[in-house]
Amino acid sequence: MAYPREHWIRIRTNNPLERIMREIRRRTRVVGAFPDGNSALMLVAARLRHVAGTKWGTRKYLDMERLIEQNREEITEAVE
């Protein structure tokens, strides 16, 4: 499947996910040793909730409307 030109720069890299993972790694290193797995999970979940609740977490990374439009065109061409 050929992606729209404007998507290629964003498909090539996965910066938002890498940024979240780097932030979680940084915060878990500060704590050092966790008493159990649940405390580590609670720290990670709290950080992910914070990211999801902020403006940064609601930002669109890819505009899927262009991809949907392209798929419709391909289906129409295939039917004809």
UniProtKB/TrEMBL annotation:
Instruction: Give one GO biological process term.
Output: DNA transposition
Is Signal set as a keyword in this record? Answer: no
Q: Which UniProt keywords apply?
A: DNA recombination, DNA-binding, Transposable element, Transposition
* InterPro entries per UniProt: Transposase_mutator
Q: Which GO terms describe its molecular function?
A: DNA binding; transposase activity
Q: Superkingdom, according to UniProt? A: Bacteria
Would the keyword tRNA processing turn up in this protein's UniProt record? no
Function comment: Required for the transposition of the insertion element.
User: Hey, which family's this protein in?
Assistant: Belongs to the transposase mutator family.
Q: Report what the protein is called.
A: Mutator family transposase
Source organism per UniProt: Lacipirellula limnantheis
Q: What is the lineage of its organism?
A: Bacteria, Pseudomonadati, Planctomycetota, Planctomycetia, Pirellulales
